Amino acid sequence: MRILIVDDNAGIGKVLTALCASAGHEVVAVLADGDGLEAAVRRLRPDLVCLDYHLPGRDGLELLAVIHALSPAIDVVFMTGSEESGIEQRAADAGASGFVRKPFSQTQILDELYAVVDARRRAVGDGAAATGGDAAEAMPAGIAGDGRRTVVVADDSASVRLVLKGLLDDCGLRVLKAVGNGAEAVQAVRALRPAILCLDVNMPVLGGLEALPLIREISPETAVVMVTGCADRDFVTRAAQLGARGYILKPLRPAYIEGVMRRLL
Description:
The chain has helices at 10-22, 37-44, 60-70, 87-93, 106-123, 158-170, 182-192, 208-218, 233-241, 254-264; strands at residues 2-6, 26-31, 48-52, 75-80, 98-101, 150-154, 174-179, 196-200, 223-228, 246-249. By secondary structure, the protein is of the alpha/beta class. The protein folds into two domains: 2-123, Response regulator (Rossmann fold, 3-Layer(aba) Sandwich), CATH 3.40.50.2300; 135-264, Response regulator (Rossmann fold, 3-Layer(aba) Sandwich).
């Protein structure tokens, strides 16, 4: 795997380079800030970026959006020593594939890299890219022409949509459509009547919890699974009261998604 490291601490850059190399990965560059990030991504085509949060100029969350605008297929492991409230959730909701708190151990970094690589490998495996798009494929409601249960994915992160589609396909489900906000999710459910809707919580135009009652009214037979970076007790209770059947935690992990789908179906 080709890895780009972005961290203003030269010592951490060296440690990460050594750890990645020990795991058989190639570190294509180490940047001290985000100024040359776009050019480096275009030129070096990394598979994964290890991205620090506190950087000179633009911070890691802003740069995460830049990376995924260039290519949603690039995994990002977000790194920080910040105690800022909610930073892990914000990074996950923005599409980070992994999260590591500083100071970190060798085991933490290698385990996180392995988890991210495994999730991407499963997501882009055989047939994972095949998705449909019209209501005729979902007849009867909730069943595709090949007999698989149908799914709509709604998440404002293109990277999350890409990985989640692949992992759901790996679970034997058929993703009919992937959309980027709650209003589009409502329209897709109305048109496609999927068996399952994976619905992100924090989205523009219409958030997941705001869209959920509308979706339940339109298609009560659709099982709604919330997608979130933080499933605290208050959120779980509210989502369940609104009709959600479960939740998927970000960053996405294959075993967790398999378990949720198995219980659901």
